[in-house]
Amino acid sequence: MLERTLKVLEYNKVKEQLSKHASSSLGKEKVEKLTPTTSFDEAVAWQDMTDEATTVLRLKGNVPLGGIHDIRPFAKRAKIGSTLSPHELIDISSTIYASRQVKKFIEDLVEEELSIPHLQNFANSLIQLIELERKINFCIGDNGIVLDGASEKLKGIRQQLKTYESRIREKLENIVRSTSTQKMLSDAIITIRNDRYVIPVKQEYRSAFGGMVHDQSASGATLFIEPQSVVELNNQLNETKLKEKQEIERILIELSKEVAFEADHLINNVTILAEIDFMFAKGSYSQKIKGSKPILNNQGYLKLLKARHPLIPKDEVVPNDIELGKEFTSIVITGPNTGGKTVTLKLVGLFTLMAQSGLQIPALDGSEMGMFQAVYADIGDEQSIEQSLSTFSSHMVNIVEILKNVDANSLVLFDELGAGTDPQEGAALAISILDDVYGRGARVIATTHYPELKAYGYNREGVVNASVEFDIETLSPTYKLLLGVPGRSNAFEISKRLGLNQHVIEHARLHISAESNQVENMIASLEENRRRAEAELEEAHELRKDAEKLHKELQSQIIEFNEKRDKMFEKAEKKAADSIEKAKEEAEEIIKHLRKMQREQYASIKDHELIEARKRLQDASPDLVKNRKDKKQTVSKAQKLHPGDEVKVLSLDQKAHLIEKVSTNEWQVQIGIMKMKVNEKNLEYLSRPKQVQTKPLATVRGTDSHVKLELDLRGERYEDALMRVEKYIDDALLAGYPRVSIIHGKGTGALRKGVQEYVKNHRSVKKVRYGEAPEGGTGVTIIELK
């Protein structure tokens, strides 16, 4: 029954969505094995773990779970003496590193006093295997190649390999390049066949070459021959490769033994990392569906606030409030087959399974979920047009099985109960089945389109009618659940909206009994009153929220004001106390000095000495106003900046020139060949170039021309470049620039050398140097002008 329930409630689809949030195959494996628990304590612990994960994700954004691999098979193979491959060892190293990162991440959270007891226990159980990680990384590179430094022997072998390969290539290249043999070759290349270096020789020149034939082309026109002159070298090369292979095998055996020694710790770490990954997969999934932690209870009580089905798109789903298990333990949703009833049925069942699986539910905070030992669901295709005996039979088979097992700890979901047979018999069966399940104490939600069940909830205590609201204007369900209001057929209203003649509708009403009309009118009145009450309740909730928000804001502002006021008082008192204390100390020093003078001179103190002491006492008194005035004067003396000024960029400790002001507080500056925006607070004024008064000369390049602080010569011919440099220096002198940059690039060095020699000998150049690293290095020449 459980498998069928999980299938019809689409529990596996939720698991598919959850699996996408796992970071490793370990987490995905945990998701695959996930099933709802029937233990209340276990469900509560699972929910707490998911809540910890959502809290961490909300505060930190992400968790360092990359690089985790399922290395349990490798560890087990190492324990029984198998030799692991380099890639398997790299996966082990990566997982050790990942466990170290996760452990540190959680420990940092604990230091920040975040309450995460489950994660803290996991972190405490993770075992650091730094030495094993270091040994693997020392011997094997990221690409899975055993490194030269893994052992001195391997390093020496590989040096020999390079020597042999170099000698072989040198001999073969001499043959390939020889004019006497070029015509005998199909192509002037060196290639490899059967791990031996060979050259491609035309078939007809086979006898001209000694050595061995290792391969031929598909046409047979080319033979791949190993010349006799390199046969011995190739033999030595292959022997050395064999030694390399043996040494690599020895290194891998040693590393595998190290893994075997730590195998149990590795398996323990992987098990814990799987749990952590699984936790954060559930937390991440909760964020996606905007879930909340449900309050779990053992009383079979459900209270869902604005619940949304997680498999329906957010822009389509309609939130609903649902309650079951206190005033009533059965809900009978009546009404025509217009959709929405089965969605509600599946939502309650799926939420129960999710809550008992440790998953948060897409509903508002404060929602409650009851724990059940079993969830039974008989849900078919409520949209089926053709009802047949086979349909009825399949439903009854499921219902019979459910009735064999149902008890007070069960949640039972019936969809279109009694459908598929004679309406009167079907309705009677539905009532009898509901009575039987209700009598056993189970929680029940059933949907039906039989009008006979509309009165069911009114005749039995603990049962409530419900319906899905239908919009006559749009001729479609709103999918809003109405508890306490039975469904009505809406057949006459729908027919009228679709254009059926009024006299036909009125004639049809004559065939409806007076009691039925009264019931329909009563239902319509109930719906109207409920809509009005809900609208007023929603408005009251909004007003209360606004009032609470305003109250909290005022409280916060008052608290903040009082705290600032107290801090200002404390600061002022401390400053005053410090000033007074300093004045007292100064006064004591003056008094001591006077007494000393009196003792030493054995006479009365002279007037000018008293005047000097009084002045020192006055100077010792605190004068905060004077200090503030001095500060204002200091600030007012700050130099105003202008384009062309030489400044210092404080954060970079580099000199620069101002180009233009780009905003209220920002300037565009030039540091060598680099331009950037800098805040005015980050600039220190150094100097300003003197303005040249000869106005006609300042417009040599035209009245609208602007002389840049750099000259870019990259791509220029040598002679043209020097002519441009000469003209540029003249223009820079006329513009009044103290320093400019010439960009010539590094290249072959001819242009750089020519520019350097030219500017060093120029009459108007005071100093020449290459740019610093931030200015462009040797690709730029900086010159200071006289």
TrEMBL record:
<dbReference type="InterPro" id="IPR046893">
    <property type="entry name" value="MSSS"/>
</dbReference>
<dbReference type="Pfam" id="PF01713">
    <property type="entry name" value="Smr"/>
</dbReference>
<dbReference type="InterPro" id="IPR036187">
    <property type="entry name" value="DNA_mismatch_repair_MutS_sf"/>
</dbReference>
<dbReference type="InterPro" id="IPR007696">
    <property type="entry name" value="DNA_mismatch_repair_MutS_core"/>
</dbReference>
<dbReference type="InterPro" id="IPR036063">
    <property type="entry name" value="Smr_dom_sf"/>
</dbReference>
<keyword id="KW-0255">Endonuclease</keyword>
<dbReference type="InterPro" id="IPR002625">
    <property type="entry name" value="Smr_dom"/>
</dbReference>
<keyword id="KW-0694">RNA-binding</keyword>
<keyword id="KW-0699">rRNA-binding</keyword>
<keyword id="KW-0175">Coiled coil</keyword>
<dbReference type="Pfam" id="PF20297">
    <property type="entry name" value="MSSS"/>
</dbReference>
<feature type="coiled-coil region">
    <location>
        <begin position="516"/>
        <end position="600"/>
    </location>
</feature>
<protein>
    <recommendedName>
        <fullName>Endonuclease MutS2</fullName>
        <ecNumber>3.1.-.-</ecNumber>
        <ecNumber>3.6.4.-</ecNumber>
    </recommendedName>
</protein>
<dbReference type="InterPro" id="IPR005747">
    <property type="entry name" value="MutS2"/>
</dbReference>
<dbReference type="Pfam" id="PF00488">
    <property type="entry name" value="MutS_V"/>
</dbReference>
<dbReference type="InterPro" id="IPR000432">
    <property type="entry name" value="DNA_mismatch_repair_MutS_C"/>
</dbReference>
<feature type="coiled-coil region">
    <location>
        <begin position="147"/>
        <end position="174"/>
    </location>
</feature>
<keyword id="KW-0540">Nuclease</keyword>
<feature type="binding site">
    <location>
        <begin position="335"/>
        <end position="342"/>
    </location>
    <ligand>
        <name>ATP</name>
    </ligand>
</feature>
<comment type="function">
    <text>Acts as a ribosome collision sensor, splitting the ribosome into its 2 subunits. Detects stalled/collided 70S ribosomes which it binds and splits by an ATP-hydrolysis driven conformational change. Acts upstream of the ribosome quality control system (RQC), a ribosome-associated complex that mediates the extraction of incompletely synthesized nascent chains from stalled ribosomes and their subsequent degradation. Probably generates substrates for RQC.</text>
</comment>
<keyword id="KW-0238">DNA-binding</keyword>
<keyword id="KW-0547">Nucleotide-binding</keyword>
<comment type="similarity">
    <text>Belongs to the DNA mismatch repair MutS family. MutS2 subfamily.</text>
</comment>
<keyword id="KW-0067">ATP-binding</keyword>
<dbReference type="GO" id="GO:0004519">
    <property type="term" value="F:endonuclease activity"/>
</dbReference>
<comment type="function">
    <text>Endonuclease that is involved in the suppression of homologous recombination and thus may have a key role in the control of bacterial genetic diversity.</text>
</comment>
<dbReference type="InterPro" id="IPR045076">
    <property type="entry name" value="MutS"/>
</dbReference>
<keyword id="KW-0378">Hydrolase</keyword>
<feature type="domain" description="Smr">
    <location>
        <begin position="711"/>
        <end position="786"/>
    </location>
</feature>
<feature type="coiled-coil region">
    <location>
        <begin position="230"/>
        <end position="258"/>
    </location>
</feature>
<comment type="subunit">
    <text>Homodimer. Binds to stalled ribosomes, contacting rRNA.</text>
</comment>
<dbReference type="InterPro" id="IPR027417">
    <property type="entry name" value="P-loop_NTPase"/>
</dbReference>
